[in-house]
Amino acid sequence: MPEITFVQFHGARETLDVAVGNTIMFAATSHGLEGIVGECGGNAMCATCHVSVEPDQLHLLPAMTDDEDALLDGTAIMRQPNSRLSCQIHVTPALDGFVVHVPERQI
Amino acid sequence: MIGPAGVLIVGAGQAGYQLAVSLREGGYAGRVRLVGDEQGLPYQRPPLSKSYLQGDGNADLLPFRPQTFFDKHAIEVRGDTRVVAIDREARRVITATDEMLEYGHLVLATGTRNRPLPVPGHDLAGVHALRTQAEAEALRVAMHAADAIVVIGAGFLGLEAAAVAAARGAQVDVVETTLLPMGRAITAVMSEAFIRQHQRQGIRFHLGTGVVRLLGDSVRVTGVELADGTVLPGSLVLVCIGVIPNAELAADAGLPVANGVVVDENLATEDPDISAIGDCAAYPNRYAGGMVRLESVQNAVDHARCLAARLLGKPAPYHVVPWFWSDQGDWKLQIAGFTAGCQIVVPRGDTDSRDFTVYAFRDGRLAGVETVNRPSDHVAARRLLSTGAVITPEMVAAPDFDLRRATKAALS
Ligand SMILES: Cc1cc2nc3c(=O)[nH]c(=O)nc-3n(C[C@H](O)[C@H](O)[C@H](O)COP(=O)(O)OP(=O)(O)OC[C@H]3O[C@@H](n4cnc5c(N)ncnc54)[C@H](O)[C@@H]3O)c2cc1C
Ligand code: FES
């Protein structure tokens, strides 16, 4: 299974094996990982699953939809150029070794 | 201040779960107990009428968090435990097995239960309800085998399930006593747009009529008889005619109950040691202009956060723009604010197309926005409404009106 690494705001790292097809948000919440809330259950409605990705890995993801873009305007911590909603990232074999950074707050 | 017995939450659903989490996030160090009468870990309901019903019954996707999370945060989750009474004087609750659980602060997060269908035949095999995971699983399995389904009650749940069944190729009949599906919660324009959309998928509506009995052979349901004598054949009947708030614990303990447990804008009951949140709580809402009781994830989560802040010594009245979503086939409906009953309604976009927005006005100003397949409009609308900016029907009807631009202007 692809390995996804989560880097917390204070630097702690945790790597999870994530089944292909699952979202990064689901991987985090179903492991009880801190910092990713996922309040709307992955419906792209709450922006509490905000992460930023490594700039040199951004190209591994499909371009974001207008809807994801609009939602990112409402994150608790101001969006970065490499911000994404982790509920919209479905894990593929190509994402093995992917790293996401968890923001300080989601609410 | 909360007594040494800590916070006892009755009802381990969306609101109860969130309160426990928010208390810990806010640094509460006392005891937190989450007591519910269902089995297993707290779980999400929205997928039950959507992806879960469509899918292969993978229940792993439903829990909010794993057991390890609750252990780590010292949240004591107890399933299969029904609370039957509150002893306010002794500050404890009594369970169905006569156990006494003391509380420092008691939170009622008991949600709602389905309203039973008061007609003969309601207890035949093949008649389903939908609220819990167990019910969703039974419905899912039955749906896979049924080719004619009757849904009684055209609320959000009933229509979501109807859309899943129709997409599977079943013949679906929907019966509703009013003329407007989901009419308690959305504008007439949107309700009618949904009727047409569901009809395009082959769903048949029987509006403005009631059910007089469910027909069956000696055990199984075979059809539904309407008030005008029409008989709709169906080997599966789903009853979704609304809910009853679980407010009996409060009522029996002498607390005011009126369409739910009555609380103030701080979500407090008359008893300073008892609060109520989520689907079971009736509270004053500024955006609705009166008392409301809402059934939504947003309401449950934001109530929980508001109460956690108060219990942690930072009270702030609950004033939040409500939002909601419902997935019905290819149409994702999203609602920001309160739109039901609004007389002045301005649609933007073709209400028979794949995406459009409906603006609803009360007292001459924007009260809510309904969107179909336009999540970005929805998000902008939520932010716009929260600014309190005055938006009039004339402004929205202007050809060059742009929601995102209006939102940016209101925020700056
Ligand atoms: C099928 C379905 C689909 C939905 N879809 C959506 C959606 O798309 N979007 C949306 O916003 N909302 C949706 N909702 C509504 C949303 O799930 C509810 O608003 C939310 O769950 C309310 O949370 P709650 O904690 O107040 O109540 P609940 O989640 O209902 O939890 C209450 C819990 O308390 C327990 N309980 C009751 N009495 C007692 C007692 N005496 N002792 C112990 N335990 C007790 C109940 O068994 C239950 O487990 C849906 C609901 C259902 C049923
Ligand atoms: S979980 Fe709500 S937007 Fe991602």
Termini separation of chain A: 31 Å
* Low-confidence runs of chain A: none
Mean pLDDT of chain B: 96
The main pleated sheet of chain A reads as: 5 strands, mixed
Q: Fraction of residues of chain A in helices?
A: 10-25%
Number of strands of chain B: 26
% residues in beta strands of chain B? 25-35%
Overall radius of gyration of chain B: 22 Å
CATH homologous superfamily identity of chain A: Beta-grasp domain
Tally of alpha and pi helices of chain A? 2
CATH architecture of chain A: Roll
Strand order in the largest sheet of chain B: 3-2-1-7-19
| H and E order of chain A | EEHEHEE
List the ions, cofactors and other small molecules found in this model. Answer: flavin-adenine dinucleotide, FE2/S2 (inorganic) cluster
Describe the structure.
The complex is a heterodimer of chains A (107) and B (412). Chain A has one domain: Beta-grasp domain (Ubiquitin-like (UB roll), Roll). Helices cover 13% and strands 20% of the residues of chain A. Chain A contains 2 helices and 5 strands; from the N terminus they run ββαβαββ. A 5-stranded mixed β-sheet of chain A has the order 2-1-5-3-4. The radius of gyration of chain A is 12 Å and the shape is globular. The mean pLDDT of chain A is 93. In chain B, the strands form 7 sheets. A 5-stranded parallel β-sheet of chain B has the order 3-2-1-7-19. In chain B, helix 9 (375-387) packs parallel to helix 11. Chain B is globular and about 60 Å long. The model of chain B has no long low-confidence stretch (mean pLDDT 96). The structure holds flavin-adenine dinucleotide and FE2/S2 (inorganic) cluster. Flavin-adenine dinucleotide binds next to helix 1, helix 8 and strand 22 of chain B.
